[in-house]
Amino acid sequence: MRPGGGHIWAGLNGKGSLEWEQLFGYTGGGFRRLVRWGRVMEDHEVRDPIHMFVRYSSGERSVIDCPPVQRLRHIHQLATTYLVYPGATHKRFEHSLGVMCLATQIFDVVTARAMSACSQLVPKTDLPYWRQVLRLAALLHDVGHLPFSHAAEKELLPEGESHETIGVRLIRSLESLFMDLTPPVRALDVAKVAVGPEHLPDASFTPWEEVLSSPTFFGRTLPT
Questions:
Q1: Could you tell me the sign of the dihedral formed by the alpha carbons of 106, 107, 112, 115, in that order?
Q2: Any domain includes 15
Q3: Judging by beta carbons within 10 Å of its beta carbon (0-12, 13-18, 19+), is residue 78 exposed, middle or buried?
Q4: By residue range, what is the domain housing residue 112?
Q5: Which one is catalytic: 7, 76, 145, 163?
Q6: Using CA atoms, how far apart are residues 98 and 104, in angstroms rounded to an integer?
Q7: Could you tell me which of 3, 118, 165, 193 has the fewest CB atoms within 10 Å of its CB?
Q8: Known catalytic residue: 163?
Q9: Is 41 helix (H, G, I), strand (E, B) or coil?
Q10: What's the CA angle centered on 215, arms 10 and 110, to 5 degrees?
Q11: Tens of pLDDT along 4-44?
């Protein structure tokens, strides 16, 4: 909740507290739909060899289509491993789409099955906001990677820099795209969940943000 009351996204778009409803599953037409503030929005979808289809909204498509994300199409996930194993050619672009897909599925399951525990960390009314934050953080967690990924990071970057610090700057540069989403999202929240407190030591993290940004997020014991 924002100081003084009201949902997080209400203070971002000035619309006040509005009804949010999500319909999970598929409609008769075969498209997954989200009912957001009274508007039905069909997701876009892309074919994936592992997850079958990865679906995303028009607002998320604008983020996916931006140059910092599109450049991931040209960066090998496993660096130079493909020189030894010719099949290891997948890129960080499809990896990032898959992480967004899986993170969303896990978030939906955990918040549905452990709602009482989650509600001790974040109001139920704020979960749609944090679901969107998590999706963007999953999509953008590798956006700062250089060519050759980890294999050349230490040699190419000056001391104190990493793909995480570059990623934070790139994420914050996309704030205008995040503000067009429903609900609109703060870039700092996306950056915090994407890289965690270790790489944003000057930022303050709530217990909920620490949970979302933790590599062991879903293995962590929630309060009962």
A1: positive
A2: no
A3: middle
A4: 58-219
A5: 163
A6: 10
A7: 3
A8: yes
A9: strand
A10: 55
A11: 333 443 334 443 333 333 333 333 333 344 444 334 455 89
